Here is the input.
Amino acid sequence: MARLQHHTNIALHRGHVVGRRDFLRHVAATGLAAGACNWTDVISASAEELRSRGMACILLWMQGGPSQFETFSPKPKHDHGGETKAISTSVPGIEISEHLPHCAKVMDELAIIRSMTSKEGNHQRASYLLHHGYLPMGGVKFPTLGANVAHQIGDASHQLPSYVRIGGRLPNGGNGGFLGVEYDPLVLNSAERMPQNTKPRTGLDRYHRRLELLDSIQTEFAASVGTQVVSDHRKLTDRAAEMILSPSMKAFDLEQEPQKVREEYGSGNFASGCQMARRLIEHGVTFVEVVSNGWDTHQDVFERTKDLTAQIDQPMATLITDLKRRGMLDRTLVVWMGEFGRTPRINPRAGRDHYPKAFNAVLAGGGVQGGQVIGSTNYAGTEVDERPVTVNDLFRTIYHTLDIDPDHENVSKIGRPIKLVDGGEVVEELFV
Here is the structure.
């Protein structure tokens, strides 16, 4: 067993790039060679190693369905491309929309999937699918991607929540689902001000006495009819009470950022959200979602998307650059996506309608190989021409990148085991 422990230490300390699969494979082989292997110790060590790596994810969510033609898949040589021109990027041969000049400069860090495909063209169902990996199902409250990531690799003892959403609640109420309220996101409407109600209005002694009184009242209620309600409420109030007294609350204060850095991100809600996302990841938060609204461009798609891309271009590029210069990009996966794309054909209102058949997602960091394009559509942009990637493929890839087992089964409250991802394949090209 001493020999097993020696090799376990090597696997744990050889560097942060040791993944869970490689770690388990290494320890298993060593244990077999030694003739003994305590799998409880192995799994425990694996979980501890994963958390010590500090892997994290930032989801940049484009609510409403961004047009692929006006963002990362322009078609300037076809009528379907409309008014949008393409520009060169830092990677020869890869072109993106003229409205994303800052992203073009960091193309060497970006991997564009141009062959995302789905069958869901309804906003609510598609948004649910792209947040949960499952479609809504009666009787099952699925956890969101963020909740699953927080559950798998978040630090439950950390004073800040593992999952934060900036830009308001999901329309479909995405939360911790059957994992419990402790995996619901902390929701901020805006990053430009501190979270509301996070400063005690009394001295600390009186504050703690009030908490004790609340606990006493809840105990009486739980003893009669409200056991589960009280249990859930206690989980929230206990975490909130700990959080608001934590020195880590400074992560929410953008005023502490140097003015030069704030200017690099640009102005606006999305810029502030990206900057706060980096601060939160720096302070140990595991999953942060930053929302950009308004991408449902059924009319005036060219003017509206020009404005929308101006809001996200500089902040997104700066976020990636900032993470890299701080040594955080290798352990932080950044994902840009929306619920679907827009129709190749421009409608009579100069807009584009819903089109799940072919759309985009962009990944950076977390070990993803940037400077490449995965998949393609045909000349007209109407069909996926090469390397289709489904939503399940994408989710499996995200979990894989974060060293989370996509086949891990959670047991729902109705007693049914549910995998993090049902089917799909890892997009291996992203790591070549």
Notes: DSSP finds twelve helices and 17 strands in the chain. The chain has three domains: 2-49, 54-196+249-431, 201-244.
